[in-house]
Amino acid sequence: LRFDEKIRVVVFKSEVKGVFCAGADLKERAQMDDAEVGHFVKRLRNLMDEIAALPIPTIAAMDGYALGGGLELALACDLRVAASSAKMGLIETTRGLLPGAGGTQRLPRCVGIGLAKELIFTGRQIDGQQAASMGLVNHAVPQNSDGDAAYQRALALAKEILPQAPFAVKMGKLAINRGIEVDIASGMAIEGMCYAQNIPTKDRQEGMAAFREKRPPQFIGK
């Protein structure tokens, strides 16, 4: 996905009705020794980092349970859409654990420190509507009879992104992700560097030409 220039947006969805991702298999985990658990969680954390580092926009479509590592997967995505009835939470403390695949870092960056601490300390599960009210998901939608309302909304969101200049979108994502971790002056410098990379693109010239000619732009990602 990282190197396929034809791909503009990635949507993560489940093939299991009523479940986005239920997290780790604790029965499997119980068979591991301490070293194996540490290795397993490190690999899982690396996977989430790889997803977060994808240069193209990513959307999690949560049509059901997103618990523990399942919510950490969604948090590694850029955007999240949930069915109002979906249940989500970092429930690790209810099992004698703590989030180990990025949850302690990505949740506070998403909803703020106070709310993140409350959700992690209590292991509470919330529904899609509650998640939307705290900014954990971008959109919460009523579930439909097919059980894929969040996926359909995620597709609609992806289709809004598709016509936009791909390289500009990638640079926008990079500027946001890098800039949020530093002071604002450094962030402005990062934005400037990303903008400078976008200036010589064919798509920028196409955008200007399309505006002058009063027609929709035809971006090619170059």
Automatic annotation (TrEMBL):
GO cellular component, one term: mitochondrion
InterPro entries associated with the record: ClpP/crotonase-like_dom_sf (IPR029045), Enoyl-CoA_hyd/isom_CS (IPR018376), Enoyl-CoA_hydra/iso (IPR001753), Enoyl-CoA_hydra_C (IPR014748)
GO molecular function, one term: enoyl-CoA hydratase activity
Keywords of this entry: Lyase
SUPFAM superfamilies assigned: ClpP/crotonase
GO biological-process terms attached to the record: fatty acid beta-oxidation
Keyword check for Nucleus: no
Family to which this protein belongs: Belongs to the enoyl-CoA hydratase/isomerase family.
Name this polypeptide is given: ECHD2 protein
